[in-house]
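[Meeting: bench + compute handoff]

Bench side (C.D.) handed over the final construct sequence. Compute side (W.E.) agreed to return the predicted structure before the next meeting so the bench team could plan truncations. Sequence as handed over:
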Amino acid sequence: MRQGRSTRAPLIAGQGPLAKVPPLLAFLVVIGLFTAGVLVRGVLGAALLGLLAAGVAVLLAATWQALSPGHRFGRVLVLVVLVAVAFSVL
């Protein structure tokens, strides 16, 4: 059986995939990519939103074991909505 962190234990600061990135910077990059993707529209807008979706998917995969089922559902829902918005701007 696999030994590891409890899936119910909160993430400890400094152990996550974005530990060294200031939260404000990460927030601004996400808002910037989303806004640019929606405003630009077309293939370029969809590509920007796809890039954002890929980043969300990577972070979701990296933190999957530490998330509770409710948090997993919420984050997968955000990913699905983001992909739907990317298709809608084509």
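W.E. noted at the follow-up: The mean pLDDT is 87. C.D. will use this when planning the next construct.
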